UniProtKB/TrEMBL annotation:
The keyword Membrane applies. It comes from the Bacteria. The chain crosses the membrane at residues 25-47, 86-106, 127-156, 162-183, 195-219, 239-257, 297-318, 338-359, 392-411, 423-451, 458-476, 501-522. Keywords: Membrane, Transmembrane, Transmembrane helix. The keyword Membrane applies. This is ABC-2 type transport system permease protein.
């Protein structure tokens, strides 16, 4: 096969992708800019004097914070504070944005068969890939420009704000290139998502490991290049050169690979199954297990690695605060409470990850409908409740597995780091305390699936708002009631505080009611619902 690049018709394909995907693109960009604006407004009011900025810099320059947010330069400036506060969100949101936009225009369209129809016209073989990458880079550029403008309006240094905007584009562009290559390698979108997220997590962890001691290891990670650009310290050109070269190499590789395979195929062939399904797989429960097994194992591995890493940092946190007793007293009233507060934050992060697993798994129900497979299954002697129930049971077990593995990894690594076995029971109990929140998120998703299936992805907006309120709300000095009554705040700040029984009951009861309502709606609507 020829390795020449055939990209005629890029403009037409850009128009098609914009028309069919501008809503998702706008939601990503405007949602993240809104988060930046909220953070900037809150921080501007909190750190309006040089003395307060200096206090923030002293309190945030610890190994644990560098592990979470990266080694941010210029913490004594307003721009540096905002960059640090956004560090964790940016570390995951930008790669996810890049994977979502790039995968949507490449592997997802190819998997659905729509790309083959487009290529049947006078359009170059690589035109869709080029158009997808250009559109994703345009979205990242818009995000970077609006973020820089928001920083400038908030009072941050103009040059630093512009460099920070470019920094966001750099981080996203690298993952656009990575996703473009993965879309050629794998035949299913879920594989592209799984490997892409795994690489983003690996990059985040490598950056964190290097940032703790400030070693060269950070240069092995795109997240490390993002840190080393130092927008609000002494801005560096080298990270931008490294990132641009890496993006160009990845994009060129994706173009070459796309020319070496058939449309609809992939470099790594999907495993073919036996000609006949086993008796187990012909049962509704067996089919549901097969549907969700890969997603469950992938998320379980992700939370195990991340939580194990966080727990291993516990002693490092204590050591960091041991040399600053005034700060320890100010934050949590003493050294032991510092560890409990840090453990509560790690458990909250675990709950967010498990929530992501729940919503992604429930989203597969809608995919079964849009792909036409649901109609085929319902054409058998099987009711809709009989089809839904096995999926919900499997997802409930999967939630316990993913949460249990993550909680066990966090608990055992924390106990080993602190040489205190009592943390195992404490952290496992704190992990279980978030189960009502998982039920609430599942209830919202199933209710949307039952009554307004095209709106089911909107549950991710609720998830994003809830995560931001719980993780950043206290630091941004948002109203206490708003944080406490957000979905993740309903159970309380466990294990630093006791479980909020009232909030847990509200989350559990509302979640169960929405779950039942969603199943009822599914039994009364048309299938498929466009």
């Amino acid at each position: 096969m020829s390795t020449a690049v055939h990209a005629s018709g890029v403009g037409i394909n850009l128009g098609v992708q914009w028309r069919t995907g501008w809503k998702a693109l706008a939601a990503w960009v405007l949602g993240l800019v809104a988060l930046v604006a909220i953070t900037a407004a809150s921080i501007t009011s909190l750190y309006e004097t040089p003395a307060k900025l200096a206090t923030y810099a002293d309190s945030s320059d610890t190994p644990a914070i560098r592990m979470l947010n990266g080694d941010v330069a210029g913490l004594q400036t307003l721009g540096g504070v905002m960059m640090n506060e956004l560090g964790f969100v940016v570390g995951f949101a930008i790669p996810v944005l890049a994977i979502s936009l790039t995968g949507r225009g490449t592997r997802r369209e190819e998997e659905a068969g729509r790309l083959e129809l487009l290529l049947a016209s006078r359009m170059g073989r690589q035109a869709p890939l080029v158009a997808t990458v250009l559109l994703a880079l345009a979205a990242l550029t818009a995000l970077g420009a609006l973020t820089a403008l928001t920083f400038i309006v908030a009072g941050a240094d103009t040059t630093g704000s512009l460099v920070y905007g470019l920094d966001l584009v750099l981080l996203g562009a690298v993952f656009v290139g990575i996703t473009a290559v993965l879309a050629q390698a794998f035949g299913h979108m879920r594989s592209v998502w799984g490997v892409g997220l795994a690489l983003a997590l690996a990059s985040y962890i490598v950056r964190g490991a290097g940032s703790v001691d400030g070693t060269w290891v950070v240069w092995l990670s795109p997240h490390g290049w993002y840190d080393r650009a130092a927008p609000f310290g002494d801005p560096q050109v080298t990270p931008f050169v490294v990132g641009a070269v890496a993006t160009l190499v990845l994009f060129t590789l994706a173009l070459r690979l796309s020319a070496r395979r058939d449309v609809g195929g992939s470099l790594i062939a999907a495993r073919t199954g036996p000609h006949r399904a086993t008796p187990w797989l012909r049962t509704p429960f067996g089919l549901a297990v097969r549907e969700h097994l890969g997603t469950t194992l992938g998320w379980a591995l992700l939370v195990a690695i991340l939580m194990g890493t966080y727990g291993a940092l516990s002693q490092t946190v204590i050591d960091a605060f041991a040399g600053n007793p005034e700060l320890a007293e100010f934050i949590a009233g003493g050294g032991e409470q510092i560890v409990e507060s840090m453990a509560a934050m790690f458990v909250l992060l675990l709950a967010m990850l498990v929530g992501g697993y729940v919503l992604q798994s429930l989203g597969s129900l809608r995919k079964e409908e849009t792909s036409g497979r649901l109609e085929l299954q319902l054409s058998e002697a099987r009711g809709r409740v009989a089809w839904t129930a096995p999926h919900l049971v499997v997802l409930a077990l999967g939630t316990l597995i993913v949460g249990g593995i993550g909680g066990l990894a966090l608990a055992t690594s924390t106990a080993a780091s602190l040489d205190d076995a009592s943390w195992i029971g404490t952290l496992m109990g704190a992990t279980l305390a978030y189960l009502p929140v998982m039920l609430l998120l599942a209830g919202v998703s199933v209710a949307l699936f039952g009554w307004a299936p095209p709106m089911q992805p909107a549950v991710w907006a609720l998830f994003a708002v809830a995560a931001v309120l719980a993780y950043m709300g206290p630091g941004l000095d948002l109203p206490e009631a708003l944080v406490q009554w957000s979905p993740f705040g309903l159970v309380g700040n466990v294990p630093a505080e006791d479980v909020d029984v009232t909030g847990s009951l509200v989350a559990g009861v509302v979640g169960l009611a929405l779950l039942g309502l969603g199943v009822l709606g599914f039994t009364r609507r048309d299938v498929p619902r466009r």
